[in-house]
Structures are given as structure tokens and as C-alpha cells.
Amino acid sequence: MNGMGQVRPFAGAPAAGEPMVRIRGLTKSYHGKPVLQDIDLDVAAGSVMCIIGPSGSGKSTLLACINHLERIDGGRLWVGGELVGYREQGGKLHELPERQIARMRQRIGMVFQHFNLFPHMTALQNIMEAPVQVLRLPPEQARARAMQLLDRVGLAGKHGRHPAQLSGGEQQRVAIARALAMEPRLMLFDEPTSALDPELVGEVLAVMKDLARSGMTMVVVTHELAFAREVGDALTFMDGGRVVERGAPRAVLADPREARTREFLSRVL
Amino acid sequence: MSVTQPASGLPVASEVPAQEVVPLRHPWTWAATAVVVLVAFGVFYSVAANPAFQWPVVAEYMLDRQILAGLAVTLELTLAAMAMGLLLGTALAVMRLSANLLLSSLAWLYIWFFRSVPVLVQLIFWYNFGALYPQIELRVPFGPLLYGASTNAVITPLTAALAGLGLAQAAYTAEVIRAGIASVPRGQTRAAKALGMRPATIFRRIVFPQAMRVIIPPVGNEVISMVKGTSLVSVIALADLLYTAQLIYARTYETIPLLIVASLWYLIVVSVLSVGQHFLERHYRHGV
Predict the structure, then answer these.
(1) What is the pLDDT of residues A237-267, one digit of tens each?
(2) What's the pLDDT tens digit per position in B61-92?
(3) How many domains does chain B have?
């Protein structure tokens, strides 16, 4: 076994010209109330897509559809050229069994607004858990990688701490390291700095910038417009479960075409 | 340290003379304490000095072979009924939390029934099960017989006690375990799923250890109740600690000292279990 370097069958680099994430006509509703309507979205491999919009606009739900934490009701969603959550056969979509969905999620990292670290494990154990339990990596190897990742997010000395003993910014950086330990091809960020005290936002954004510079494909739901302008390659503005406007971040933020985008930006800037 | 005059015109620290602080007195607390100590001493003295307690008889029977055998039955019964309660209770809790309406309703029905009927009644019921079904058979539907026996051969005082205590315990434990599992935030499962973990791994590695923190204190209390609850089996003539004591005093008429012997053993066992519970709770308190 050649370990972490091995390319697993799922979510390898998409074929040339194929986007890392492709969404076509995606719809979803809760109890009959539509929360996502007719979403089309492409995220190019190696690019950073930022999604902004008011709360309740469906942006976090859209993000959770990408790794099938939320089921979609209509449309298609591919990651790395592979249909997510379903198998297409005879003109019908068949929902995949849980274990196959789990296999797809292995190469899609996710970072949550409230960190969701495992409170009964140390920072180190949090990062080692999935490589050992899911990839069956030998613990020593997983441990060495986890220590490297902790160093990368600037927490080298804190491996023995439990989440409750870490600040919000430190917890979120451990959460990023935990996702990176699975060697994802794609990283999803769900408002990663919204739950942080203002003085802790910078340290998390710095880690994310570093990750973007390393060439990671990222989809970032955020309220940090400065981050979107500086790091984002593309920007999508959502409202009422629809994509209202998209384009280059500088262009959209400086000169929005749509009235709703202008209104939103005037309220948050 | 230099203290400047604040703009408000309040006196600066150096101008305030050091004063003695007199704490508030609580004379009634002291009076109540004196009364309680006096009463406690009176009770203790009357117990120690009253020859009717027959302390020498208590000492004589504490390590009696029959009593120790009874104690062993009580401990074994506690262990077996608790194990049964935990296993069946976990299954019921998972059923209760299932999205399948039929499974969750059936679990609800079970819990409702076995929590509502007194355990004493259930024990007597199981003991007389033979009147209801003289023959117990296990067979493949419309197929061959796998196991068959007369009910009176299967239902001994021990199996009746196990069924009565264990099945009722499962109903209580199920609710405790369900509450424990439900107490783990949904974000934990989402994070574990996002890492590609399978449902069984998520339950074993993420949800269950966190649920244990909530589950252990009440289950500890259930174990302690079970130790004492096993004394109910004396009504179906199973020679546990209490029934053994009763057998002895029926012969010797030393009722009080033998009840004291049984009580002392219950006290000792419960005390040891409480210490164990304390350490278990400490073990699962990690990271809170």
C-alpha cells in the first residue's frame, strides 16, 4: 500500500476542462417550502469560490448539498466528475447506500461555523480520528501527519489540549487541520469565522489564505467581503434560494449589476 | 502607588482609614446545629445501649456462610439483570430513535408497559407464567420445532427473577440511553459524516462516548436501586440476601439482628458501588 499519496478512484483531478464542482438545476425544499431553486454553479479546479448573501438565502444549505449532508430534490451535482449521492441508471436517480456516500465524502473536507470538534478527544486525536478509522492508516503515520498539520495551522504546541481548552480561533484551526488530514481535493467552509470574536478572525483567515495559495479548490460561504475580494477567484451572491449574481469578486463588490446585490452590499459595508 | 484625585471628587484610597470588617452572625444556624447534634447523639446512644438490637447476634451472623451465599445471589442477580437491562435497553433506545414509525412505536409501547406495572407484580406474574403457557416452544413459523420444554422446567425462581427485574430494567435504561444519545449535538454527527465516517463508526467513536457522560450518572443510580430492588425476589422464594435472613430468623426468632445484618450488607455494597460510579464519571468527563 502506498498510503496517502495513492489516488483513490473517487474525486481525483477532474478531466481537463471539467470543473471540480458542477451544479445544474439544483432544487431543494423543506416541508414544501423551497430553499434552493434552479441553482447552476461551476467551481474550477484550484479556484476559490466565495458565496455571500443574507441569512436564510440558502447558501449554507447549498454548501451542505455538495457533500450530500443535505439531500437534493431535483437537478444534478457532480464533484470531480462524479455524481454526488446518486447513481444514474435507466433514466432514474437511485440514492446510494450510506457507505458509498461516506466514501465520496472522504475527499471533500468541510469546516463548520461552530467548529464541531469532538469534545472528548484532544486536538491531536481529533485530527487522527478519520485517517485511522476511515483510511485505516497506521496510528504512528496518522500521528506524524497530524503533528505536521498542527504545525501548519500554527498550533504545534497544543496537540494535547481538548477543544474546551482552546480559543475559538484555535478550535477552528484544529478543525481545518482535521479536514486536511483526509487529503481532500475540495474544501467546503461554512461561515468559518462567523462564530469567532473579532480579534480571532484574522488567524483563521490567514490559514485559509495560505491554503488557497497552495492551490486547494475551496468553496467558502462567508460574510468576510475583504477575504472574498482578496482571495476569491469567483463570487456568487445568493438571495431567496437563488443565485442572483456572479462574477469576479472585485467587479461584483465594486459595481454590482443587480439591485438586490447593491442593497445587500450597502447594508453590510 | 500614586493615586490621583478622580474627577468625580470621591476621596482617594489613601484617605480612607483601614477598618475592621465584621461578618454577619448567624445565631439561628448555630441553635439549629446544636439541636440536630443533640438529637443525633440521642438516637445513636439509644441504638448502641438498647440490648434488644442484639449486636452480638449481628456480629455472629455478619460472616455466616448462608448469609454470604445470599449476598452472592443478590450480587449475581444485580449483575445479570443490569446486563440484560443495558443490552435490551440500548436496543430499545435505538428503536425509539429510529425513523421507522413502527419500530419507535413498538419500543414506546414496551417502555410504557414495563414502567407502568409494578416490578413486584411482574415478578409474581413471571413466577406463575406456567399457568398461562404450560409449554414453551420456539419454532420456525410453520416449520420445525427448534426448542420445546415444559414451562415449569424453564421458569425457576431464578429465571422468573431475571425476567421480572431485567425486562423492567430495560424499560428504565432505554429512556436513560435515549436521552444520552439525544444529548449529543447534531453537529457532531455532521462533522463525522463530512470526514467520511460510516454510521456504525460514528456511533461507536463519536456519539456513544459523548452520550456516556449523560448516561453514566443515572445508570449508576439504577444499579444502586437494583441492588436493593433484588430484595423483591424474596416473594418468589429465591434465596437472596433478604430471603436468607428471613429464613434464619423464621427459625431463631432473631428478627431484628438479622434484618440489621442484611441492611449492613446492602449499605456496604451500595457504598462500594458509589465509589466506583464516582471514578467512572471522572473517566468520561474528558474534555468538558
Answers:
(1) 999 999 999 999 999 999 999 999 999 999 8
(2) 999 999 999 999 999 999 999 999 999 999 99
(3) 1
Contact A110 B191 (CB under 8 A): yes
| DSSP-derived secondary structure letter, B205 | I
Task: With respect to residue B3, please indicate whether it lies within any of the assigned structural domains.
Answer: no
Domain span including residue B193: 57-284
**How far is residue B140's CA from residue B195's CA, in Å, rounded to a whole number?**
43
What is the DSSP code (8-state) at residue B134?
A: S
Most B-contacting residue of A101, A118, A124, A158 (CB-CB within 10 A), to test interface: A118
Q: Among all chains, which residue has been given the C-alpha cell 428504565?
A: B172
In a domain, B2, yes or no: no
Q: What is the pTM of this model?
A: 0.78
| Grid-cell match 415478578, residue found | B123
Identity of the residue in A98, A109, A116 whose CB atom sits nearest the CB atom of B188: A116
Q: Please give the interface size between A and B, counted as residue pairs whose CB atoms are below 8 Å apart.
A: 75
> Distance between CA A204 and CA A192 in Å, rounded?
8
CB contact (8 A) between residue A134 and residue B197 = yes
ipTM of the complex: 0.91
What is each CA distance from B28 to B17, B25, B31, in whole angstroms? 33, 9, 5
CB atoms within 10 A of CB B14: 9
**How are beta strands A33-43 and A21-30 bridged, if at all?**
antiparallel
Interchain contact, A102 vs B193, CB within 8 Å:
yes
Residue B37 lies in a domain: no
Please tell me if residue B170 touches chain A, with a CB cutoff of 8 Å: no
Within-domain flag for B83: yes
**CATH code of the domain containing B119:** 1.10.3720.10
Closest A-chain CA to B206: A118
Would you call B196 and A182 a contact, using CB atoms and an 8 Å cutoff?
yes
